[in-house]
Amino acid sequence: FKYFMDYHPIFKTLLGVVVAIQFTVPALIGALVAMKFDLSPLAIAVVASAAYVGSGAAQFKNGAWMITGIGDLINTMITAAIAVL
């Protein structure tokens, strides 16, 4: 999308949407795994949070949490699997 932004402004919007959605992937994976195991809503939120942090997408640096990208999906799956046990 970055290449096409010079030709039409819709591609800048699409790039923003794609980047925003990629940050939610680890949390969505955690929530869907927890829902598959019929966990309570609180447990779903905990598994989603654990999967998000376990993916490496959120890192604690210099006293603050930083969102660094999508993280590692293998770590997301492993963390979600351990969390539902």
TrEMBL record:
Residues 2-85 form the Phosphotransferase system EIIC domain. It is found in: Cell membrane. InterPro entries: PTS_EIIC. Keywords: Cell membrane, Membrane, Sugar transport, Transmembrane, Transmembrane helix, Transport. It comes from the Bacteria. It holds the Pfam family PTS_EIIC_2. One of its GO terms (biological process) is phosphoenolpyruvate-dependent sugar phosphotransferase system. One of its GO terms (molecular function) is protein-N(PI)-phosphohistidine-sugar phosphotransferase activity. This is Phosphotransferase system EIIC domain-containing protein. It comes from Xanthomonas citri pv. citri.
